[in-house]
């Protein structure tokens, strides 16, 4: 049995949620994904047996517990969701009454996962099961189950935007060839409007969303961009370092809360992989050392 597990492990491409740009062939897309061979993504400190790999993943899963607990339980998380949608709606109303915006049709652009769709039940179950690194096959199965929920306030917000006549573009890094059909069905089941091929733009080749943003802005006047990852905004953070990401955000500080709306995601995202080079492929012990050093040197 261990033999079989080990063989499977060597075949499976691992996608680390916290990673990069798009939950690969199936990762919580929004859950950016970096696909790397399992032996690179899950180095173990005490050997390479299936049991030791499992133990390592369980340790990594434990790192996510408090972050997931906060998203699953805190009133403050719900409040921030409402705050984000309320701020976006103010911008929508402002744009509708702005005579200067009578050119191209108005639109909003938003990410899906952890921006309007809620995957925390599946993430929490995976963490509880000791899966601290989210495999592409696991994510594909989650997407195909079609059980992503709606974040607090998301349905009302999107339906109101739709009624006000704006176009709604769902720009997600779920991997299109594997996940499009299931994603459209899930969004429709949640009663999210405009969930069709024109408005759902998933990842084809690149996790950098800027090309998809450019396609939209060629025909639409985008009022607001919304996401839980800086890469969900057209500010050029894709592939940038921790320092660069922070500098870019600082340079756009006047636009947050108006043109750019950000939702909290302490569990995964490009911010994790930006902590240090190869952070996603470190052992829990190595991460612990990096974390400690980072927090200490920044005090
Ligand atoms: Mg997301």
Automatic annotation (TrEMBL):
Signal sequence residues: 1-24
Pfam families documented for this protein: Acid_phosphat_B (PF03767)
Keywords, ordered alphabetically: Lipoprotein, Signal
Keyword Transferase appears in the UniProt entry: no
Keyword check for Protein transport: no
Highest taxon of source: Bacteria
NCBIfam families in alphabetical order: lipo_e_P4
Protein name as catalogued: 5'-nucleotidase, lipoprotein e(P4) family
Organism: Megasphaera hexanoica
Organism phylogeny: Bacteria, Bacillati, Bacillota, Negativicutes, Veillonellales
């Amino acid at each position: 049995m261990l033999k079989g597990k080990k063989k499977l492990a060597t075949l499976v491409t691992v996608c680390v949620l916290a990673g990069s740009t798009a939950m690969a062939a199936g990762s919580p897309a929004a859950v950016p994904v970096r696909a790397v061979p399992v032996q690179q993504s899950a180095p173990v400190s005490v050997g390479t047996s299936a049991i030791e790999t499992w133990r390592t993943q369980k340790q990594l899963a434990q790192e996510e517990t408090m972050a997931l607990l906060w998203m699953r339980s805190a009133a403050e998380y719900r409040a921030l969701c409402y705050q984000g949608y309320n701020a976006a709606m103010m911008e929508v109303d402002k744009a509708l009454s702005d005579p200067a915006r009578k050119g191209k049709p108005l639109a909003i652009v938003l990410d899906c996962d952890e921006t309007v769709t809620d995957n925390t039940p599946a993430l929490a179950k995976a963490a509880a099961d000791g899966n601290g690194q989210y495999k592409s096959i696991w994510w594909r199965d989650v997407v195909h189950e079609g059980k992503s929920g709606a974040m607090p306030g998301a349905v009302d917000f999107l339906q109101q935007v739709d009624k006000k006549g704006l176009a709604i573009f769902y720009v997600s890094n779920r991997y299109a060839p594997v996940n499009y059909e299931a994603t459209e069905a899930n969004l429709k089941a949640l009663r999210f409007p405009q969930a069709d091929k024109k408005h759902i733009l998933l990842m084809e080749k690149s996790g950098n969303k800027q090309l998809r943003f450019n396609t939209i802005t060629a025909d639409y006047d985008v009022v607001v961009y919304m996401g839980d990852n800086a890469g969900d905004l057209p500010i050029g953070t894709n592939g940038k370092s921790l320092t660069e990401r922070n500098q870019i955000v600082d340079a756009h500080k006047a636009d947050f809360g108006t043109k750019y709306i950000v939702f909290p995601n302490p569990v995964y995202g490009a911010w994790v992989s930006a902590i240090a080079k190869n952070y996603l492929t470190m052992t829990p012990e190595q991460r612990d050392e990096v974390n400690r050093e980072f927090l200490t040197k920044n005090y």
